[in-house]
Amino acid sequence: TTLQKIQAKWQLETLFQNDHFSGTDHIMNITGTASDYLEFRTDGKSYYSIQGNKDTVTYSLVSDTQLLIEKIKYDIKTLTANSFIFYGKDVSGSNFLEQTFTLKK
Length: 105
Hints:
Blueprint: H1 2-6, E1 9-20, E2 27-31, E3 37-40, E4 45-50, E5 53-63, E6 66-69, E7 72-79, E8 83-92, E9 95-104
């Protein structure tokens, strides 16, 4: 199932983030290192470490094509045995945060 495919420890290849506020894009492109990862566990929690920032968040599968992490819905673009790409956009008025995660095993 989609959930079973997601539940693993994934290495971060790239993270594209655009934090748009005050009418301006604030773009960040992160290239993952060996210590950057996202791990989706069977208890509905995801543990991550990106550029030394570590945290635990909740996640759930909305459908076979959508993932909910905290309060942001992400569209699953690619999900294979070795590749996981998802994109989300959280809009608040004229501001938004959009992210694309590219992960690998």
